[in-house]
Design goal:
Elements (H helix, E strand, L loop, with lengths): L1 E2 L16 H21 L6 H11 L5 H16 L6 H29 L6 H8 L20 H22 L2 H21 L8 H6 L2 H19 L4 E2 L2 H17 L3 H25 L8 H8 L1 H19 L10 H32 L51
Antiparallel strand pairs: 1-2
Helix pairs in contact: 1-2, 1-3, 1-11, 1-12, 1-13, 3-6, 3-9, 3-11, 4-6, 4-13, 4-14, 6-9, 7-9, 7-11, 9-11, 10-11, 13-14
């Protein structure tokens, strides 16, 4: 069992250690979503090849679930005393909105090229990231379809500064009760959807921001327990094994009502175990420089991948037909590479410079105060005081607006 030990007698540290493993894990979640969409677009026509993709990525849509849990975890872990609500909200907008605006405009250009009808009201909803609140079929997937998750994230960001003081003051028993209750609430959504008109049930369980916030708060509560040194969970190897077993079982035998809850728990165990490994300076396969880069561009990758694939397939006349033989996997691999290149460019020339330009500057941090480490307490491991969980980054990127590895490139 792993834990982060508390040091109640010592003054608080100037910052928590970085969590770069969470950045690497973001790429795995983005890859799951990509594989799911590649499968549902039927790019691969060869049945044997398609069966492999379906087996690997049939639950890939749950990668968004991972992003939501990770977002709550990272933002609570990296929250700094003294940050105002306005500062927090401005930093979040500076991080995700420039990329969203570029893809919103690009999607409208593609729609114009293919002469697709665009409802002005739907375009406005998407521009303002309000589409996840609209239950009308098609509206919540309007314009750049994947941006519905940003609409949810905006709601999470609005709520977190209001709820964080309560979270900080909550007693441990209440936090542990929430860790148990939140997955049960996710499970309860399935019978609860019977109270919703059938046409809106997908929206209610998969899109509606207050419902999806259950995953965000699950990560947030776990981060608060870990900050206090109270979290107890399996190590990274065991947590990873639990995830793999859960994934295989869920894909083969478990109904959707159960696997959404089970995967939420499995994702949380992996996230906390990876964070604990970073805090303690233990080995983690997710801290390699290639994975760190992939994790940093994963937000841009997530935003571009569906638009690129659908546009190319429509332009080539291969939409819905699939590619025979080895050409199917080759096209999927080509899409993966092309989307990575575009994501790297978007991250380099839009996301990073706009974050630096628009986000409020953080005040200079005080030098760390020397203190005696309590028995069993972890050191900062490979991290330093600057990033906190910024190195891990949530779905929308770094908490402090720059990569902890930026100086090493």
């Amino acid at each position: 069992m792993t834990s982060v030990a508390a040091t109640s007698a010592a003054p608080p540290a100037p910052a928590l250690p970085r969590l770069p493993s969470l950045t690497g894990l973001r790429w795995i979640a983005a890859l799951l979503v990509f594989g799911f969409h590649a499968g549902t677009m039927r790019i691969i026509a060869e049945p044997d090849y398609k069966a492999v993709v379906d087996a690997l990525f049939t639950l890939g849509l749950s990668g968004v679930q991972f992003f939501f849990i990770l977002s709550g975890f990272v933002l609570v872990w990296s929250a700094r005393p003294g940050d105002s609500r306005r500062t927090f909200w401005r930093r979040r907008v500076a991080k995700i909105y420039p990329n969203h605006l570029v893809l919103w405009a690009a999607t409208l250009v593609v729609a114009w090229w293919f002469a697709d009808p665009v409802l002005p009201a739907a375009a406005l909803e998407n521009l303002l990231l309000l589409q996840a609140w609209d239950p009308r079929p098609g509206w919540f997937y309007s314009i750049n379809t994947v941006s519905w998750s940003l609409s949810c994230e905006f709601f999470f960001y609005l709520c977190l500064p209001l709820a964080l003081p309560l979270l900080r003051r909550a007693r441990p028993k209440l936090l542990w009760a929430l860790i148990v209750a939140l997955p049960l609430l996710i499970l309860a959504l399935w019978p609860a959807q019977e109270l919703v008109p059938e046409v809106s049930r997908w929206w209610f369980t998969q899109i509606f921001p207050p419902v999806r916030s259950l995953e965000f708060w699950l990560g947030a509560v776990a981060a608060e327990l870990m900050r206090r040194g109270l979290w107890r969970g399996p190590g990274l190897a065991v947590a990873s094994a639990i995830f793999v077993v859960t994934w295989v079982a869920a894909a083969q035998w478990i109904r959707a009502e159960l696997w959404t809850t089970l995967l939420a728990v499995a994702y949380l165990l992996v996230i906390t175990a990876a964070a604990d490994a970073d805090v303690r300076g233990r080995r983690s396969p997710w801290r390699s420089r290639p994975l760190i880069w992939l994790g940093e561009v994963s937000f841009a990758f997530y935003l571009v991948h569906v638009l690129v694939m659908t546009s190319v397939l429509r332009w080539s006349g291969d939409w819905g037909t699939g590619f025979a033989g080895w050409r199917g996997p080759a096209v999927v691999l080509g899409f993966l590479v092309a989307n990575l290149i575009l994501a790297g460019l978007l991250h380099r020339f839009v996301e990073t410079p706009m974050m630096r330009r628009l986000a409020p500057r953080r005040p200079a941090r005080p030098a760390p105060v020397p203190r005696q480490r309590a028995a069993g307490a972890p050191t900062a491991g490979d991290g330093d005081a600057e990033g906190g969980a910024a190195g891990a980054a949530d779905e929308v990127g770094l908490a402090n607006g720059r990569s902890p590895y930026a100086d090493r490139r």
